[in-house]
Hints:
heterodimer, A: Elongation Factor Tu (Ef-tu), domain 3, Rossmann fold, 2 domains, six-stranded antiparallel beta sheet, 8 helices, 15 strands, 30% strand, globular, B: alpha+beta, eight-stranded mixed beta sheet, four-stranded antiparallel beta sheet, 12 strands, 21% strand
Amino acid sequence: MQNPYLPYPVRIDEIVTETEDRMLKTFKLVFLNPEDEEKFAYKAGQFAELSITGKGEVPIGIASSPTEKGFIKFTVNKTGLVTGFMHDMKVGDVMGVRGPLGNWYPWETLEGKNVVIVGGGFAFSTLRASIVYMLANRDKFKEINVIYGARAPELLLYKDELAEWEAAGDVKMHITVDGTDDPDWKYNVGFVPTIAEKFAPPADPDTYAIVCGPPAMIRFTQPVLDKLGYDHNNIINSLEKRMKCGIGICGRCNIGEKFVCKDGPVFTLDQLNNMPAE
Amino acid sequence: MKLIKIDNEGWEKGLEKLNGSYRMFGPFENQDSHAFKQFGQGESPDMSLKNTHLSAKSVVYPQSQVMFEYTTDETKDDHHIMKEVATDEKPAAVFGIRPCDAASFLLVQRNFDSPEYKDPYWVKPYEASTFVGLACDDPDSTCFCTSAGGGPYSDNGLDLLLSQEEGGFTCQVITEKGEALAKSAGWDTAAEGADFEGKKQAAEKKISVKLDSSKLKDQKTTELFSAEFWDDVAFSCLNCGTCTFSCPTCWCFDIQDENQGTDGKRMRNWDSCMYPLFTLEGSGHNPRPSKVQRVRQRFMHKLKYYVDKYEAGIQCVGCGRCIRLCPVNIDIRTVCDKMNYYQSA
């Protein structure tokens, strides 16, 4: 019987400090056993449990796209026991990865459609996976808009790649920051909901919005999408909860009868409207 | 129905015979009640119990269990890699388990043994166990198994079912596993003139409480969730967690790494939705910060979410432990009534 609690051993190949406050680091992980990479076949939107031996596990969204081979990437915020320890680790250290877990963004439904990504802060990691995936399969999607904001320029993730995606011209990038005193800042200034109202395409049955960010951003972006007429089946969210097993068995991450780890983390707004407000 | 007769001498001899090839579990006196424990040669479980204080779930699913071992010593080849631990694969025989507790394993199995994931720590010990039940001729006032899909003589989840007689037992052989155990024990005398069915009817009549849970599945989840009665239900709750601890169908757990120097174990420990830490997130946010939200979660899970998810009835076997043990007398039967008959204003 396969043990779903056993992590794949991985080695840290690269660590990039993403933000000026040094609270966010992207870890590039390589499987110790090459055959494990095939077993780990994943889709953009899924997460994995990062296992730090002697400390515990944390559920983190996969930031790399399945089209990127030879490694997997996770952007980790320094929050508590496990992530704090992880931030102190170095290249070459061994840890574990369990997954891929959860469901994914509905790529089959999104094929041939317009996609608007609305992301804020460090919730952007699975959105990076999604953008890289869409760019590698560009002809499968129609218009792609990305609205991504952070409190300040220094807190944006994947800064080099944001510029690349914009230069490639295939994706309409609307980067914004809440505020800045940098005179050379050439993008938008304003909260994500405000920028979303300005740049999000009008709603139609072929346009889907993937919304992922801190609660405040979601709370104020939703009225904007409602005003633009987005149907709740066309709005896709990704949730988070305290997790342990990640496979729908330990019982703690439920919202109603659904487990965020197994039936989610991706849910449409319509699904969420029919779930208890927890 | 295949019935065999076991007299007291045959019972003791049988237990001795089985001791070599099975890990033996049964109820023994424990403080002012009974508890399941593993027993060896020369020991005999106390079959005169009403029921054990805590459920039998610890026989298959212990309170603390080692999942993996590891070392963080970087001079070792397998440092930082999780290693599976060897377990005792010998079959287990569980004696004196009441039909409600035996049926609870079938309910819990749906959680640990699903098409997508199988939990080897639960599934393997369960599949290796043979359950020898003890029918209830004298149900307690807090028993309501007949309203929870079971009964005092129910064979759900059992391999053999014993009914107490003068000088021994009449035993119903239910499954092949049970037959094999009976044969190994030398219990093969056919029972003659035993009124198994009659005793069953008599026992069922003694359970006076009839609980209706048929309307739960048609209730709208979001409406039940925002019902006004939760404040009332949760008012006296202490979040002590006794209900979850003693309940045979509560299964939530925590995973923790425990270190001793550079050696360590990844452990699985029982956990409870009654505690605030259960859902506390790293950011400090807690989706269930208040007691009433946690109390609501437990009853919604038992009587609504499980019902909707598996379409096999409530996640309760009517053993009555939570009713007997709750220090503030919260009664799941009352809550079930409130939820079952609820009509939003």
